[in-house]
Write a structure and sequence with these properties.
It contains 5 helices and 15 strands. By secondary structure, the protein is of the alpha/beta class. The protein has one domain (about 1-20, about 75-315, about 325-330): Nitrilase/N-carbamoyl-D-aminoacid amidohydrolase. α1 packs antiparallel against α2 (about 95-110) and α1 (about 1-15) runs antiparallel to α3.
Amino acid sequence: MITKRIHRLLGIAWMVGALLSVPGCGEAPDGSQIVDESGDGDDNGDGDGDGDDNGDGDDNGDGDDNGDGDGDGDGDLLPPSIALVQYNADLNFADANLNVSNLTDLSLEAVELGAKIIVHPEGSTWGYATHNTLWCLPGEEMYGWMFCVDVSLAAEPIPGGPTTGYWESFAAMHDVYVIYHVPEVEGGDYFNSVGIVGPEGFVSRYRKRELYSTDLAYAQEGTESVIFETEYGDFGMMICMDGTYNGVLYDEYVEAGVDGIILSMNWDEDPDGSYAAATWFTERAADNNIIIYASDVSAWDGTAKYLPDGTRERNGLPDPAVGIDGLSLHLLE
């Protein structure tokens, strides 16, 4: 598709403007390889090495597969929806080039299916951590028993960094909003952050306020709530552990009357255990009488729309979908 070729060119421009090859990023500091465990060159399980699994095989002659006949692959004739991306960037830790390529394919699929808001999970640009490697403050070699990679090699200002620029171009081209994750730097401080871009450019950023142990290796706590206001509804922003417990972080959004919470996460709990995301956020949504839209890493399988009645919905992902990258789409009411 022509659209995919354009995004490949945008990706090249993004790579020129960013440091995408961290010295030694193909291996942990101890020399062990950080590899795609599937062996196919991507991590979505389809075996084709191209980083997508949408099988778009357009056969109607218009250059797209959404049925609108305009050849641009967008979903203008479909009802607007929110696309929750499930994707495991940790398999490609420190390889932003591959991760952004895979995220682009998933995001293009979302556009074709009518998405107007696209949500990426925590750590989806650079990876969050591996079993023995994580992002640390510059100069650190070890954090506990884990090996450090200098976060300054990945962090960028929000706005103004290459990741923001790339998704700004994508959002403008497809008339969508994109919520993306990247380590943020401001002055000498680092944050675990998401940026939000839309058809008109940069919208906002949100900094994680409740830090997990992995975050403490480099990040400062955020201090402000963010309500993402759109023509499709208003949404309170959270990142992973922000949504773990009932309390003030939920209360402020509920009291503000938001239409739901958007949660970008890397849940890091056994998807079959008592602390599984599916169980945890079903309870949080019910406890707070609010919808939670969660985008999670495929290893933890928490991606879904969690409803106040104590149920969760998936549209596009099987249930369970452990280890499966893809999309769950939900109509914006």
